[in-house]
């Protein structure tokens, strides 16, 4: 029921389930407060205030998620809240929990101030002193000299996270679009804020923005077509129409309602919009450029969290709205999954930049996760949920390592400079090797458990072809992951190679958490698989 | 009482762990710690023994279940011990001789910088052997079996700086591995036949299995026994194993390792009783090894290698007896125990001689040592008399019983086996007399050692002579005690099957024959080595001597039969790997690399072409979706 269909008569007071929606509300509320802090707090207090605010907000939000799940909202008490716009159910709460944890850990990465050499006696972070200053211009020099820092990153990141929390919970198409924009716009900005190599960073942001807007347009067009087909934007409503129970025909839409062409084209376009966000082939081309150009903490956050949120949204859309046209979208997504797995793995072989390498790896992983999505079963859902949880921490950890390997020009991302890293910094190289092995899906890491869950769900559902391609792609991918390990441990170090910066306890503990999660989910995955298994049912 | 069994094993195991982990700070007293723990183990064994004697023959067995390693449906892997009369016999032998060898090593290894490590390995050896004989199932037995293999590897190669020692250790390990495969297969067969590893159902239900299965299990067990006990065809490691320090040789030859194979065959008697074919093979292996070892022992000039040949031969006696079935089991064990005493004594004596002679091992450079090392001479002499079967010493009783049992097999087989064992007795007397004459009698043939020092033979310190004296007492008296009122037979009969043979020759006749042949052997040796001076360079000798010096061509045979074909096979596989496998692998890798390079060109950095790709993708998405509906 949408409020505007009740134009005549008394306007109903909107019902709003404050408690059920509290995780999102807390995060967005904290973002708003963060903006106020930027406006009113003295410059020197902003950094501390923002960090504390973000940490507190995320901790509270996570507690709220746990509370809701404990209260049965993930299973028996699952409900549709916010006038039908948002679902509060197992998958939504599970993914929100993962997202908030990812955000929590990312805050530490954002707040790290010991990596860059101090400028004019002040510790600085990885972000531009003043975003609006022209790179290399006098304004920039002045900003650096005055010790400006872009503490806006914290509210921006919280806004993006707020959008991400809405994304997998969105239960109608309009909310889906709003969530998409709320999460995307702050990310575009964050991408442009690198302190070093600002031109590359700005180029990445512009590309991301242009292509993102392009994808949004497709998505929006798809939404319009679906509305034309079903006369409603709610997922459940569209599903009803597809399954052959049309409500009263809206006279304004008499020409289009029930016309399958609208459904097929609209559905394809909406799915395309989401595939853009997860970075699947052929909508993947932004990922390498953006991952490379964006400040590395942002890349880590974006790579981990966006994928979680977008796959959550895709799952809900496919499982709740479009199961009736499963035979139409399955073959297409098979193709996308196979292309993503193979293209990601193959192109990664010849990459020479570690951030681009990880970008292509993320494309391959999008393909692996799609294989789980295509199982179209409860096992498929829970395996995807588990995979996302495992993958996000490995990704964050890997990018965190990238922030630490530096030479005179900032991060040393060219792979040739990583040669022999294992001899000089065995611990850090060992941790990175752990993450790479997890990406490759080697047993006793979370990557293996995730891949095993996804592939076995797909195999059970009869998608043997996908599994075979997936295993082949994994084998190809293992080549370039292991190549980096070989490079780090068995090559001679370069003469003027980079050094590993000793970070503050924030990055150290964040790396520790990521490594611990990677090992725990790999060695004893059963508890978390069960957790994901219990969260595998969507509310309608 | 049961709980003491675990402690018995734990003591040396703890010693090994402490000494290996403890590091340098244990250097000063580590060897005494190890010796003390071995002695503690012996004390516990003695307590258990006295306790066991207090009960009736039927319920003397004790068992202790420690924990279940893998308790799943249909698969029980238990860590559980069983102490019956057979295990008790071995435990007493292992801990008593083991403790004496520990004590001896305190003196022998005094100047070795890695002494602590040596004692850690000795303790490990003891612990592994105790696990082997105390296990109540074949899986745990296998643990001990492998532990013994590991410990022997570490000890034989203890002086790893010598390439010959490192090679010998490797050889012992590899040859044993062949036997271990046999044991593993035997255990697989048992599990698939009986569904369990435990002795009690496997051995008590053995007759329910088909003869074919039992024969297969029996032959595999025999293969395992051949590896550990150095029986033909897996005998080749034993001689080289002399590269280890002499106490190690004593330990391997007397109390541990080589006895394990005999234990395995006797313990698995129920399986062999149901598989006559396998039993025949055991007898043949025993008989062949008996003569093989004796002939090799006759020709060696290296005192330790001569003794090694002797061990092989004596274990052959035991194996032959074990292959005879119930008429021989008890006597196999009896000879094993008496042999444990006199062979340990002989080896310690040899070590003592080497200790006094600057580590010289060539008997042609000894001579006339009896005046310089009286204690060594007397103790070794008593061991000598015991092993050749001098009337009323240990070897006399146990060996005669085996010869009598061999005749008791009956028929032509009985005559052949009896003949072989009697011939073995003559050869034993010959080669042992040769050793004694060349070492302690005749002219001095001493030479300067590598550093140009003259040898100054002297009696060894107390820590070395005391164990030798104790062992000499055992060599003299053990057989008599065992034979008193059939005490040993009565002791073992509740757990080991016994039967009387139908020998065509009377027991007294066997004793007379054996004694006469023994005297012939002694006389022949005296004729050759005692009557005239011994040349310092060995004469060329007839073909059999030359072959025996080369261990009857065992290594040449192995080289021709296994090493050469094996290396050709490896070379062939390497070739295939290089040309075919690598070709495919490298080709695939190059293919993907090329594909990758071409694909990445698509990523040209222009937002417009990215957008075009997205647009094209969306078009395909829609087209395929529509097409799917149309189909």
Automatic annotation (TrEMBL), chain B:
Domain NADH-Ubiquinone oxidoreductase (complex I) chain 5 N-terminal span(s) in chain numbering: 69-119
Pfam families listed in its UniProt record: Proton_antipo_M, Proton_antipo_N
Source organism (scientific name): Streptomyces spiramenti
Ranges annotated as spanning the membrane: 29-54, 89-106, 118-135, 141-160, 181-203, 209-227, 248-266, 278-299, 330-351, 372-394, 414-441, 462-485, 505-527, 610-628
Span of domain NADH:quinone oxidoreductase/Mrp antiporter transmembrane: 135-419
InterPro entries tied to this protein: NADHpl_OxRdtase_5_subgr (IPR018393), ND/Mrp_TM (IPR001750), NU5C-like (IPR003945), Proton_antipo_N (IPR001516)
Name under which the protein is recorded: NADH-quinone oxidoreductase subunit L
Membrane topology: Multi-pass membrane protein
Record's keyword annotation contains Membrane: yes
Keywords, comma-separated and alphabetical: Membrane, Transmembrane, Transmembrane helix
Gene that encodes the chain: nuoL
Keyword field contains Transmembrane helix: yes
Subcellular location(s) of the protein: Endomembrane system; Membrane
